[in-house]
Amino acid sequence: MTDLIPARNLDTAKPIRLTPAQAGGPIHTRSFSGRYRNLRLLGAGLLFLLFFGTAWINWNGRQAVLWDLDNRQFHIFGATFWPQDFILLSAILIIAAFGLFFITVLAGRVWCGYACPQSVWTWIFMRVEQITEGDRGQRIKLDAAPWSLQKLARRGAKHALWLAVSLVTALAFIGYFTPIRTLTLELATLQVGATTAFWVLFFTAATYINAGWLREKVCRDMCPYSRFQSVMFDSDTLVISYDAARGENRGPRRKDADYKAEGLGDCIDCTMCVQVCPTGIDIRDGLQLECIGCGACIDACDSVMDKLGYARGLVRYSSEHELAGGKTHWLRPRLVGYAAMLAVMIGAFVWALNERPLISLDVTRDRGLFRENALGQIENIYSLKIINKTQQPRSYAIALVEPGDFELHGPRTLNLAPGEIRDLPLNVALTSSENAASTRTLEFEVRDQANPDSRVSTQSTFLAPLR
User: How far from chain centre, in Å, is Cα 406?
Assistant: First the structure.
């Protein structure tokens, strides 16, 4: 006889309630306040000040931070970086990656919730939505209402403000590649070039679509960090957690009721944590891929606990060990390892930054083999490309290191303006024919005459006929 799966009656008293993320519709968040919201506003304010303000700072007669693509220079206050310094940019990216790994192991996705530009701009767009269309309930009603002049006016105001924020964002971003004062003037007088206009429209559209329409879909489906961050968690990582041991069984109750006698926990099932979540999840279902660690659900739940006179922390930053009744271990091998690697890399980067040569020298030998000059000496022709990487005019001395039988013919000094690049042709003559080797190595050196310790050298070959 075939075994049958026993049937049981389902409790249909409580209908299945889908979260906004599960339902697939638009996510309308409720307004709230709290300490984590204030912390996020502080972080967003600092980010805005840095992003929008830095581009307008002048330094020694030029924009303080500017990636000058035409001249292949990156100015950051008093320092100028060239393509030859690309390794330093790579080091910054590696340090930033390890910093993100360290933060993730320590406290989960707090970068996503507090400092990621996608999240910050999404919160701004959501705030614009609340101003123009009202709070959560009003926006839900507006969505369901038929089109009218009032609905058209509210939607039009929202999208106009979204586009305004997107345009200002695009101008600020492009202002780090094109002088922002010139860019703003050209845009105001409608004299902007076709290429610049394209990038302004592109980044305006990208900001408008990402923060206005895609929102949580970027964090959930497009961002690679959301896919691999969970594998970096351990049992001591601080993540936003629901204390099920304290909260269950959940359910409504009177404020003055003895809910413990009724078998209820501290959770009153008000769904405030769901209503404020920007990704539309229910944190009570456990840690989920969509959670960006913003702390909105903590603020909402704490406000409810305060009204009921219960202790805060039903939803809080906690570790798996702490929820199980243990203690969070702060000094653990993975976290210490990331911290040590960060310290080493930051130290190495600072050393490399201080030791990087402020002179660049490239030597290219003429494609011809060699020639004989009027004195009967064998000569090779070279082209020296010299770059003054400093922000001051410099005078350089040019010489051969341990010249021996070789003699340098051409200018021995060179004056360069700040950031100037000069191609200098030089001849090197072999004054003795005793050495029968046909290929020899030369080392050219360029030295700052005002600072002899600032020097750079590079090698090249010298070709001569066999004797």
Answer: 52
pLDDT in tens, 248-279: 999 999 888 889 988 999 999 999 999 999 99
- Which residue in 180, 223, 215 sits closest to 200, CA to CA? 180
The domains found in the chain, sorted by start residue, are 15-54+108-325 (no CATH), 359-463 (2.60.40.10)
The pLDDT value given to residue 49: 94
Residue type, 210: N
Q: What's the whole-model pTM score? A: 0.84
- Give the residues across from 364 on adjacent strands: 383
The span from the CA of 236 to the CA of 228, in Å, is: 18
Q: What pLDDT is recorded for position 436?
A: 55
For 323-350, the pLDDT digits (tens) are: 998 999 998 999 999 999 999 999 999 9
High-pLDDT (> 70) share of the chain, %: 95
